[in-house]
Amino acid sequence: MKTAISNNTQHACQSSVDQWAEEIRPYYKNGQNAGYIPALGKVNSSQLGISVIGPDGSSVRYGDWDVPFTLQSISKVISFIAACLGRGVPYVLDRVDVEPTGDAFNSIYRLEMHKPGKPFNPMINAGAITVSSILPGKTSTEKLAYIFDLIENLIGKRPSVNEEVYQSEWATAHRNRALAYYLKETNYLESDVEDTLEVYLKQCSIEVTTEDIALIGLIISSDGYHPFKQVQVIPKDIARLTKALMLTCGMYNASGNFAAFVGVPAKSGVSGGIMACVPPSARREFPFQTGCGIGIYGPAIDDCGNSITGVMMLKKLAKEWDLSIF
Amino acid sequence: MKTAISNNTQHACQSSVDQWAEEIRPYYKNGQNAGYIPALGKVNSSQLGISVIGPDGSSVRYGDWDVPFTLQSISKVISFIAACLGRGVPYVLDRVDVEPTGDAFNSIYRLEMHKPGKPFNPMINAGAITVSSILPGKTSTEKLAYIFDLIENLIGKRPSVNEEVYQSEWATAHRNRALAYYLKETNYLESDVEDTLEVYLKQCSIEVTTEDIALIGLIISSDGYHPFKQVQVIPKDIARLTKALMLTCGMYNASGNFAAFVGVPAKSGVSGGIMACVPPSARREFPFQTGCGIGIYGPAIDDCGNSITGVMMLKKLAKEWDLSIF
Amino acid sequence: MKTAISNNTQHACQSSVDQWAEEIRPYYKNGQNAGYIPALGKVNSSQLGISVIGPDGSSVRYGDWDVPFTLQSISKVISFIAACLGRGVPYVLDRVDVEPTGDAFNSIYRLEMHKPGKPFNPMINAGAITVSSILPGKTSTEKLAYIFDLIENLIGKRPSVNEEVYQSEWATAHRNRALAYYLKETNYLESDVEDTLEVYLKQCSIEVTTEDIALIGLIISSDGYHPFKQVQVIPKDIARLTKALMLTCGMYNASGNFAAFVGVPAKSGVSGGIMACVPPSARREFPFQTGCGIGIYGPAIDDCGNSITGVMMLKKLAKEWDLSIF
Amino acid sequence: MKTAISNNTQHACQSSVDQWAEEIRPYYKNGQNAGYIPALGKVNSSQLGISVIGPDGSSVRYGDWDVPFTLQSISKVISFIAACLGRGVPYVLDRVDVEPTGDAFNSIYRLEMHKPGKPFNPMINAGAITVSSILPGKTSTEKLAYIFDLIENLIGKRPSVNEEVYQSEWATAHRNRALAYYLKETNYLESDVEDTLEVYLKQCSIEVTTEDIALIGLIISSDGYHPFKQVQVIPKDIARLTKALMLTCGMYNASGNFAAFVGVPAKSGVSGGIMACVPPSARREFPFQTGCGIGIYGPAIDDCGNSITGVMMLKKLAKEWDLSIF
């Protein structure tokens, strides 16, 4: 497939994105920054950053594309892949299911109701905490290093943890502690609770830009093949499984709606980031026929925890560029 | 796109399917026929029928491909499309959500828990009963006629209701009556409860063959375009929405697992039928690059309500022919 | 026990009750009539009727004590006693438990959650509908006759059904139909659903005055002994069991609060009636040392379904006359 | 009240209790010791100890009446009284409700379902942990001292904590930690989580004998009046409220059954202890007309967490001596 975007096309894409983003940016007022972490609350709500990267290197960037923000729940995708790489898919799926659930991301009641309490999927907190506990490594430092190594392998640089955010999360993580102790009780947690929470909350506090997550999204969309390094960095079956999970469970309890009206695997975080994976499509004619990765950052979030302007932008791109996988 | 399968390829496909089906058929012993409807219980559990139809007319058939069976929950897809056609998508989505839920298909508790009780999606009983109540038409006969008209428009013949199955369902529909009266109480039901149940249970009792549902699946996979009549019989947006719903919610509470390990929009019924929609794929090299519809019939079902051999067959096809949309 | 209240004491009681009732009556404004049944909605909300009857025939009456109203949930006590009389306690307790639940009276979700769906107690709708289905008699008429016979045996006259209320209940009983069909599905219902609902809704529509329920309350408080007929009309073990159920489950999901701050077995109905059973007490010095039955009617109800002024009046009486059983 | 039991009567009681206890003791085989705490698991399951104490000092003792065991959930009664004494009833009831719930003692889901998550009552773990957090005192040591002071005031000696049991509980308290962190998140916990758990788990580990809890039960049954010290040690309103809570919620999710078939306020612990409060009764003719306190110890517990032989013994006593408050 040779579908490198010509300079003309790339300019056209860029100016379309500029225009759409300008139209959409003011809608940040319909949401607000995540309130429970002071460090997230104080950033400028009107920011909007976009990166789109194709496998041929073509790219579109907009606005605050290079502003650093923390991964938050987007890290659930990365730790899931890391756990699958390090422990094998069957080991991971013995400890966490892959079923969507219409509940809020931090819900605990289903652990009690659906015996024996296996977390529904790795994209909700209960499942992601379980995943953090089974990462390779004996200590929290070793487990985290496994995640950092993976990210470095994907984006070519070692990310850092935003210490202010991490401290803030650590101090207010009562609900996550409740989940973790519950999982410990039901034997789904393999490590010490506090160690696990250190891993989980630090992975949430990893700093990235839209470009970083666009690149990770691109690699996942390419079934784990890194188009620039020209190496299979994630096995195809893990990449596919990850995309299925992102589509069915990636946008909190608006995942069904997002699948219906955007139709691409994506994962959001309460920091306002969204990472989307657009597979290649025979049907798509305009740009990015061979797929792309998209990173968006808009810190004002809706009731479900998704970036207000990020979701609007993805709806627009999906419609205009026919991105849906359906 | 001109990708008509050559005679050679079609022969190769047929003999592959024959071989895989023979290997898989004996696993019907791991499941059993749906027990609550006598008419379903008494059919031969070892049956296995398969139809695959491509947009160029190429097809593969196996075994009991022409044995009639009742749609059961597969009818939820058709009534949802009918309601969207007759009432418009926004009207329908005001009354039923599009979020997956990890609950059993006939679950009632979430209607009470998630105020104000809007059904989670049209692929579970609560949502499908709601959809049946809003079909165009004042009487149950008119509403049913709307469904029959749609099916006739899709497959070129008017289906009939299996009266024995229908009577059996009517007599044992206590749980569905409970759901329907609950929905009536919370104002989600637009028609009389008994009328709605007549529509719902009759649509479940419509008789088809694997060929019929393979053709419907093909049309949906083609975004609503009927490749043989060369007419857009379902608007593209409705077809896309339907595919998203099938992927996230179509296989009862194994939908996430099916998305992860098969990866195509599909809908099952407790009669043992599965209708799958395979969109075209740039990536796919072997047969059915331009997509296909698949109909399967294997009456022995698993704990979730899905055909044991049907799911195995679809996993095999997805793997061998790279059908996944991810 | 000879503790007939002297004329002086009775006059003192009467004037106390008159004074307290006048003070409490205006608080009906904090509640409102049950809305879902038109016939209940249109009565004068400010009504307040009280009857207190002691085993020696002493009595106190206030205000609208002789205004007829429908039993509604108070009938649950009577049908439970009737079922125990007709079928025996073990038979009844095989079909309905005696555990309180913090849920609303018409809740359905716990039937699904707590396998295998046995209703928690006969004072909530699910349990009471089950009880109605197991009353002696093949038809709804026979089952109802059994209830009417019991009431006639208790109060010396045959009550009648308020047809307007019954018709109104029948037409709007969607939620109760949902419960009944659910119970049918799980095999807790012994009769046909519609027959059972006829019994249940007619028993709810039986018309009484505060004097009638005060007398029934007195008999139950006297362990089933009718002090005026001087006959044991209900076996002691059934009366005791009934009082325990009233105390733990009788005031909807304010039962715990009522037990804590009033402390007498009581059952309320959404029509605004409350029937209370005050056992004898060695500790009590003032009136009604040998116990009494209390009937109250105040149609404005609170969020839990209990008469606003009725509960206030019982709190006052309990405090002033030391009625608590604790 | 002068109703001292004659020597003859006391001998009769003693020999009855001896006989009943011998008959009931072998049924310990129908239960088993609480397994999750090693120190509880290893005691002799066949032990049975009984103490009954009347306000006149009469008493009956049987078997292992002086074997020390840990309070476990019986401590919930004492910490609730302590909190009411130290903070006032309204303050306590702002933070914990008084409604029974049919759920298991360590259930968490209702905290999530019934917004805003106020614990249902102080006799389940969630409520008791909340109560421990609001005891007077800044540190866990001060809070515990408040409980020890109360117990010393009641039984005339300062109890001690069984360190082995406490260490065992501390190490396995994952579920209680989950509850505590959840309550912290929803702002029902006033102290630090770990401090609160230290208080809660140490109060559970306080060692007593049946005589100790019989005396505490007697004082509560006497409305807080200490019949031997002749002092009101607990205000009457707090004692009454406590008895109501014990009756509706004291026997885990068998509370309704216990109220129905025993009918006295009681609280059990998984160590096998039960503390019961028998109020005076005009109706009761045989012993303990003026009430009594009962302490029982039988370490083999049933599925609900109540001592198998303890419940049987209380049923027997209630029947033979007409103890029911109903």
Summary?
The structure is a homotetramer of 326-residue chains. Chain A is an alpha+beta fold.
Can you describe this structure?
Chains A, B, C, D: Pfam families: Glutaminase. Chains A, B, C, D: GO terms for molecular function: glutaminase activity. Chains A, B, C, D: Keywords: Acetylation, Hydrolase. Four copies of one chain form a homotetramer. Chain A is an alpha+beta fold and about 325 residues long. Chain A folds into two domains: about 5-65 and about 210-320, DD-peptidase/beta-lactamase superfamily (Beta-lactamase, 3-Layer(aba) Sandwich), CATH 3.40.710.10; about 70-205, Beta-lactamase (3-Layer(aba) Sandwich). Helix content of chain A is about 45%, strand content about 10%. Chain A has a five-stranded antiparallel β-sheet with strand order 2-1-9-8-7. Chains in contact: A-B, A-D, B-C, C-D. At the A-D interface, helix 5 and helix 9 of A face helix 5 and helix 9 of D.
SS content category of chain A: alpha+beta
CATH topology of the largest domain in chain A: Beta-lactamase
Q: How many angstroms does the end-to-end distance of chain A come to?
A: 21 Å
Fraction of residues of chain A in helices? 40-55%
Largest interface: A-B, 39 and 39 residues
Shape of chain A: globular
- In CATH terms, what is the architecture of the largest domain in chain A? 3-Layer(aba) Sandwich
Order of helices and strands of chain A: HHEEEHHHHHHHHEHEEHHEEEH
What does the largest sheet of chain A look like? 5 strands, antiparallel
What share of residues are in beta strands of chain A?
A: 5-15%
Number of strands of chain A: 9
Strand order of the largest sheet of chain A: 2-1-9-8-7
Residue windows where pLDDT falls under 50 for at least 5 positions of chain A:
none
Top-tier CATH class of the largest domain in chain A: Alpha Beta
Name given to the CATH homologous superfamily of the largest domain in chain A: DD-peptidase/beta-lactamase superfamily
Average pLDDT metric of chain A: 93
